[in-house]
Amino acid sequence: MKLVLEFYDPSDYKYIGSDKILAVGLGTYGIRSYDKAFDAFMYAITHGVSLIDTAEMYDGGHAEEFVGKIVKEAGRDALFITTKMLPDRLDDKEKILKAAEASLRRLGVSYVDLFLIHWPNERISIQQQVQNFEILAEKGLTRYIGVSNFDLPQLRKAMESTRKHEIVVNQVHYSVLNRLYVEKELLPYCVQNNIVVQAYTPLERGSVVTSTILASIASKYGKTPLQVALKYLISHKNVVAIPKSERLEHVQEILGSLGWSLDLKDIEYIKKKI
Predict the structure, then answer these.
(1) The pLDDT of residue 1 is above 60
(2) Average per-residue pLDDT in the chain?
(3) What angle do CA 201, 224, 181 make, to 5 degrees?
(4) Is 229 contained in some domain?
(5) Smallest Cα–Cα separation from 45: which of 16, 22, 17, 12?
(6) Is residue 256 scored above 50 in pLDDT?
(7) In Å, how far are 79, 242, 244, 247 from 44, measured between CA atoms?
(8) DSSP code string of 185-246
(9) Is 232 in the active site?
(10) Does residue 72 sit within a domain?
């Protein structure tokens, strides 16, 4: 397989809109101990992580409340907050505003940096839901808007539907073990259109650590398979990874995916073998 070099970027930083952030953030889905997670998240933030991803549906809103506690401790300016809205809100602007205001109250902020449509509403057109969703940016409740779990045709339609505010992110399931559709279909379009791919479940709930291929590459760099799995993703242009973690030692390992480069020949090897 011949590598398309313009799709790779060795930088540990990426841009979402005009904001430069570390290419690894932290997700909040499925946290079991918020007390342990608090210490882990604060450690990450003091080491440069700014992107925190959450959603109104995560733990019935408690994940957003957890992020609110992080905001109080770290300060609003230290964070790039992403949250997501359930698609059944999208048929009515008043419902959208009400849901967004509830999220902001739980987060303890007056705005988020990025609001995403959590997945497409199949009962109404992409055009209608995106144009309704733009009210959040118009009202100053978010700085950017984006989508999640949109396939390429849906993403194209979303891009065509905006009036004043651009789609800056598509958050999708993307990992070294689940990569083909993203890399063959979504990523080239996103690179061409300045859209960031946020990779959720980038570690496949720990499954990446069992890969003998990743282990062999990791040994060359003095890294772990987990760190290689994350570095592989963020070596692509326009890709940000958002692993979930609630343990300090896990966050420390995640941060070890930064500060070094994965050779293109090893990226090519991963593509051929996994």
Answers:
(1) no
(2) 96
(3) 35
(4) no
(5) 22
(6) yes
(7) 11, 12, 12, 11
(8) IIHHHHHHTT-EEEEESTTGGGGGGG-HHHHHHHHHHT--HHHHHHHHHHTBTTEEE--B--
(9) no
(10) yes
Give how many domains the chain has, as a whole number: 1
Q: What is the mean pLDDT of residues 6-14?
A: 80
CATH number of the CATH domain containing 248:
3.20.20.100
Reference 113, options 51, 69, 57; nearest CA is: 51
Enumerate the H helices of the chain as residue ranges.
Answer: 34-46, 62-74, 93-107, 126-133, 135-138, 152-161, 180-181, 187-192, 212-221, 225-234, 248-255, 264-273
Residue 109 is assigned to a structural domain of this protein: yes
**Domain span including residue 256:** 13-208+234-260
Give the mean pLDDT of 147-168.
Answer: 98
> Using one digit for the tens of pLDDT, what is the confidence trace for 219-234?
999 999 999 999 999 9
In a domain, 225, yes or no: no
Locus of tokens 């080239």: 188
Determine which one of 29, 43, 58, 200 is catalytic: 58
CA 76, distance to chain mean position in Å, is: 19
Q: Is the pTM of this model over 0.85?
A: yes
CA dihedral 1, 153, 116, 204 (to 10 degrees): -40
What's the rounded Cα separation, in Å, for the pair 200 and 136? 23
